[in-house]
Amino acid sequence: MLALHLFCRTVPGVVAAPAVVDSLFPDATTLAFLDSSLTSSEPYAQTSSIIFPGGEHSGPLGFTFKHWVVDQGPNHGSGRYEIEGEGAVATSVRSVVTETHAGRATFYDVLRAGLTPQLVNSQVDDEFSLGWVGAFGYELKHHSAMVRHSPTAISNPHTSPLPDAALLWTDRAIVVDHARQVMRVLYLEPVHRGGSDHETADNAAMARAQRTWATTTCARLEELVRAASAEEPTREANSDHPTAHSEHSSAHSVEPSAHYVEAPLRFRFDQNHAQYLASIRQAQQSIAAGDSYEICLTNTAEGPPLSDPWRAYLQLRTTSPVPYGSYLRFDDVHILSASPERFLSVSEAGQLSAKPIKGTRPRSGRGRDSDWWRRDLMESEKDRAENLMIVDLLRNDLSMVAAPGTVRVTRLFGIESYSHVHQMVSTIEAQLAEGKTAVDALEVAFPGGSMTGAPKVRTMELIEDLERRARGLYSGAIGWLGLGGAADLAITIRTLVTDRSATTFGVGGAIVTDSDPEAEWQEILVKASALLEALGAEFVDEV
């Protein structure tokens, strides 16, 4: 078994995480940036951003992995896989991909293969470690055991032209820790355990490459900190309202410009107003027939491609600061996410946590202030009922991998407030059963129940008919699964996906028996507003 050291070097001080991307990886064709742009005293605010360089900036063990659930070629049944990169981990993953073509393995077995290296002598004092990072698309549901074994499963699912999974296996990362006011440079080295002269030489070469990268990266980060410190007095002196030192004050002066000007963009929904209302009524008929209790119906908006996705993301993180934002770049495919929702986290000790969102109100509108809308959401029996159904669904999902008696709801119907909306959030926690892993938890819980409805499998089958197109990367998950056993994943909502041909995003809501179709339409417009505002775009409803 491959054994790896995880090393960490610390640089005192912080700069804005996007400035690190701009300075160190401006030309990267592959990149993952898990970004907390919400730093505050709120308990749901994250305090670190993580940058994973890929492609030409990868280390000797890093590689890119893509998967399409449906392949139009000879391996139609097992889907299509692409792996770009070499090294021992990539070789192990390729061998399991071969097994998927033979029907003896699944996508989740491929993930497990990437996490088989043994991590020894970690120098990192928190839960984060290197491994898989990227985006998991909604159509990966077809790999779950529940769907594969369902007698009514859709045999010809809707397909997306984009990958259903776009991942990096990464052996390098930079952590910008706003709370501790430090930056950490992480990298992996193979453990030398004897072997042939050739293996010894290869391991030594990999170690030299990683140490050289770490030394160079630390030096460049130190330069950024010095530049920010030199600019700080000037910035304060020129300010009409100098501010006290905050966790971000040292970073403001090197924050890249978020001003993003795009030619006027127009987005159209896949289902227009009348069609979406008809789909809602059809969903309610299915609920009345006993096929479902709650259906999370979504609609996809499409517009032209973005001329500068990175600058658009900087604008999005400015207008919609969130705890689980992200920017992913895989060649021509860019994913810009302002997600407020944690899907699933797993600690190295096996502590599971899920935080579904169900229930949304605007921060203002209709002559009402933010406090009124917050109270309206808090007191809504309908939203509480929707939220409770998803809580019960996730309790059931997690119970399949949890130690008996450990699943519990630690927070019910909490309210979290973001730039544009108030959200109703609950928290479910559990302890992984002995022998179970973060990949096992992902397999039973994916897609997140807040994006499906209940009962899960039957409701997903109904969604196939109601939505009439693939959701793609939307409503899946974005995040990381580490070699140390921990994981942290967000639900892919409030997310733009753009390539050379188009830009899309999805919005939706939970449909129940007493849902008002027009109110549901207004809710998706509220959810779309943050993305449209960031782009300076407008929505066009075609009759």
Automatic annotation (TrEMBL):
Tell me the SUPFAM superfamilies matching this sequence: ADC synthase
Q: What UniProt keywords apply to this chain's record, in alphabetical order?
A: Aminotransferase, Transferase
Q: Where is the composition biased (Basic and acidic residues)?
A: 232-250
Q: What is its EC number?
A: 2.6.1.85
A Gene Ontology biological process in which this protein takes part is:
folic acid-containing compound biosynthetic process
Q: Which PANTHER family match?
A: AMINOBENZOATE/ANTHRANILATE SYNTHASE, AMINODEOXYCHORISMATE SYNTHASE
Spell out the coiled coil positions from the record: none
Per UniProt, the enzyme's principal EC class comes to transferase
GO molecular function: any one?
A: 4-amino-4-deoxychorismate synthase activity
Pfam families to which the protein is assigned, alphabetical: Anth_synt_I_N, Chorismate_bind
Q: Which residues form the Anthranilate synthase component I N-terminal domain?
A: 97-181
Name listed for the protein in its UniProt record: aminodeoxychorismate synthase
Q: Which residues form the Chorismate-utilising enzyme C-terminal domain?
A: 273-527
Chain spans, region Disordered:
228-255
- Name its species: Corynebacterium urogenitale
The gene name reads pabB
Quote the cellular component terms of the Gene Ontology held in the record. Answer: cytoplasm
